[in-house]
């Protein structure tokens, strides 16, 4: 294994796996010689008994050496690697090799339709709401690809109705607003997460991702007949704090500023 390969966490895991294979091979050899010893004893073969005893002693010495090697097998500083960005770069490169797109924006990784957050202190990666401790890049890439093949958990019709409920509340709270007024999405997000801890359970990045998924869906009309319109152009002239950014499935940054809903049917 080259020096470059051992400087990656994938290479470190591969080395640890190879060391474990050596230890397992030594353990299997010891078991095999012990079985030979038992057979010799059961059949009364004195010569075989002595040969198997010597072989078992040698196998045990080899196993001891292999296990001693395991003690220092993992010397990789995974926390620093995760904190300093090396892990994110390696994961993106590993995904590229597997023809899977992972993009980075505002310190968050996007792999459609999932959001990834690296957690150095836990040696884990949060994939949406799931804490994943299997951080070997090749394993994560296979998992993310499998997630893309599953039916999406996002329910656009339910999210659309929930978004309309918050929008209608925002219209009532601000004088001069009427159905059809454009309401900033950051304001709607604040109304959706009013309690302490809400923003931890449902982050702004997750909200932006859901807005994008809704925009990409065929759902545009609520149950009561109100239609949604997305507004992104004005966001280009606003501070970043007033704009929601998300990476599309094709790796392109998309910005959203506000939405407007028409009046419900019969209103």
Low-confidence stretches: none
User: Helical amount among residues, as a percent range?
Assistant: 40-55%
The tally of domains stands at 3
The average pLDDT score comes to 90
Q: Which strand-content bin applies to the residues?
A: 5-15%
Oligomer: single chain
Please outline the major beta sheet.
5 strands, antiparallel
Instruction: Give the distance, in angstroms, between the N- and C-terminal Cα atoms.
Output: 70 Å
Radius of gyration: 29 Å
User: What order do the SSEs take from the amino end to the carboxyl end, as H and E?
Assistant: HHHHHEEEEEHHEHHHEEEE
Number of helices: 10
Q: Please tally the β strands and state the result.
A: 10
Describe the 3D structure.
By secondary structure, this protein is α+β, with helices and mostly antiparallel strands. The protein has 3 domains: 3-71; 78-149, no CATH class; 156-261, no CATH class. The chain is 52% helix and 14% strand. The strands form 3 sheets. The protein has a 5-stranded antiparallel β-sheet with strand order 1-2-3-4-5, with helices on both faces. A 3-stranded antiparallel β-sheet has the order 6-10-7. It is elongated and about 100 Å long. 20% of the residues are buried.
